[in-house]
Design a protein that fits this description.
With about 375 residues, the chain is α+β, with helices and mostly antiparallel strands. It folds into three domains: about 1-50, no CATH class; about 50-200; about 215-350, no CATH class. About 20% of the residues lie in helices and about 25% in strands. The chain contains eight helices and 22 strands. The protein has helices at about 55-65, 100-110, 180-185, 260-265, 270, 275-285, 315-330, 335-350, and strands spanning about 5, 10, 20, 25-30, 40, 70-75, 80-85, 90-95, 110-115, 125, 130-135, 150, 155-160, 170-175, 215-220, 225, 235, 240-245, 250, 255-260, 290-295, 295-300. The strands form six sheets. A nine-stranded mixed β-sheet has the order 6-7-8-9-12-13-14-11-10. The chain has a four-stranded antiparallel β-sheet with strand order 15-18-21-22. Strand 3 (about 20) and strand 4 form a beta hairpin. The longest helix is centred in the last third of the chain and has 16 residues, at about 315-330. It is elongated. The mean pLDDT is about 85.
């Protein structure tokens, strides 16, 4: 424990100090050795709180921010790791935890938030305002019913949904940072004298769920997008990460379906306003590729040199009007004027009326006359 009760007060460590456990009231001693981090320990050995886990650098990087009255707060026979400004219990979880214990803590605390240390086992990719993550084999976290935050160090994912629809991913959420969490949950409870040492986020990863087959690719060529109606289009480099959606899933024994259609039907917050019919037609005409890019479902057309919708000029004009609306909504990248001009030129050339020149009729030559067939007289 970080704190113990000494003469009725909540105090931190000091060598040779004695106190009592704020949860069970039994004696505790200050352990101030050279190897393990200083802590309070029960005299009889063993922690009275079965939900406690060893305190490491990651725990201290959060708990060290707060005033003592908001850290290791006793709730019944348990100690809550932190208390947020709204009264929520913030459970800091570094080690593995089973589904049954997840359910037990959520029933006990009720008003609570999970904060999992994701720096060593999980993987994620930031995509615009969102981030997509995998839990690898740690599937039990998907059983959480209370809000979940995944701390990757420089990025914190505020989980929105757990889903296996996206290949290689366990879910997605909003990409945040530590300051966002402090502003959102801890304002008014910070210890102004605290000196917090952050963990080294470059520590060797225990496991890499994406080592064998990462689901992330780069877009391949630079594109400009209108992610907002105002201002100039935003340039994305060729190395911008994306999640390709060129595969099918079969869910619950049903028919095989394009994953892009499943996203439109079941993950509307990622669908970006597409309908299955419109995306299928526009994708066919622009020879495009459906991807998750900048946090949403978008269509990346084929390179300009290959674009050939195979439409007559009047139908191409109708298509370009629809494309323009999708560009304005950020579903398709901005097409260059020369690309549009090349498409129109190709359509006019391919669908121009063909002039048929009639072949000249050959005059038949008279057959040679056999003189023996006529009377010479």
């Amino acid at each position: 424990m970080l704190f113990a009760s000494v003469n009725g007060s909540k105090v931190q460590l000091s060598p040779s100090a004695k106190g009592t456990c704020p949860t069970c009231g039994k004696p505790v001693l200050a352990k101030c050795g050279r190897i393990n981090r200083w802590h309070w320990a029960h005299v009889a050995g063993g922690d009275c709180d079965p939900w406690s886990e060893p305190i490491g650098r990651w725990h201290l990087s959060w708990q060290g921010l707060l005033l003592p009255e908001f850290v290791e707060v006793v709730r019944g026979n348990h100690r809550a790791d932190m208390i947020a400004r709204g009264g929520e219990v913030v459970e800091l979880q570094h080690s593995s935890i089973g589904a049954d214990e997840i359910a037990a803590r959520e029933r006990f605390y009720d008003n609570m938030i999970w904060m999992f240390d994701a720096t060593e086992r999980f993987r994620m990719v930031v995509s615009g305002p969102r981030a997509f993550f995998t839990l690898g084999r740690v599937k039990h976290i998907e059983r959480c019913q209370k809000p979940v935050l995944l701390d990757f160090g420089r990025t914190i994912i505020q989980v929105v949904r757990f889903t296996t629809t996206l290949n290689g991913c366990s879910g997605y959420g909003f990409a945040r940072d530590r300051q966002w969490f402090i502003d959102e949950y801890l304002q008014g409870q910070l210890d102004p004298s605290a000196t917090v040492v952050l963990p080294n986020w470059s520590d060797h990863r225990q496991s890499d769920p994406w080592a064998a087959k990462p689901p992330v690719r780069s877009i391949g060529f630079a594109t400009r997008w209108r992610f907002c109606k105002e201002g100039e289009p935003e340039l994305l480099s060729r190395y911008t990460p994306m999640l390709p959606l060129d595969y099918t899933w079969r869910i619950g024994g049903g028919p095989w379906r394009h994953v892009r259609d499943i996203i439109i039907d079941e993950l509307s917050d990622l669908a970006n306003g597409w309908t299955t019919e419109e995306l299928a037609e526009i994708s066919e005409r622009l020879m495009g590729r459906a991807v998750i890019l900048h946090g949403s479902l978008r269509l990346v057309p084929a390179p300009a040199a290959k674009l050939d919708p195979k439409l007559p000029p009047n139908k191409l004009a109708e298509l370009l009007k629809r494309v323009e609306a999708h560009v304005a909504a950020g579903r398709i990248p901005v097409l260059k004027p020369e690309t549009i001009a090349a498409m129109r030129e190709r359509a006019e050339k391919e669908w121009a009326p063909k002039v048929i020149t009639p072949r000249p009729v050959a005059t038949p030559k008279p057959s040679p006359v056999d003189p023996g067939l006529f009377d010479a007289r």
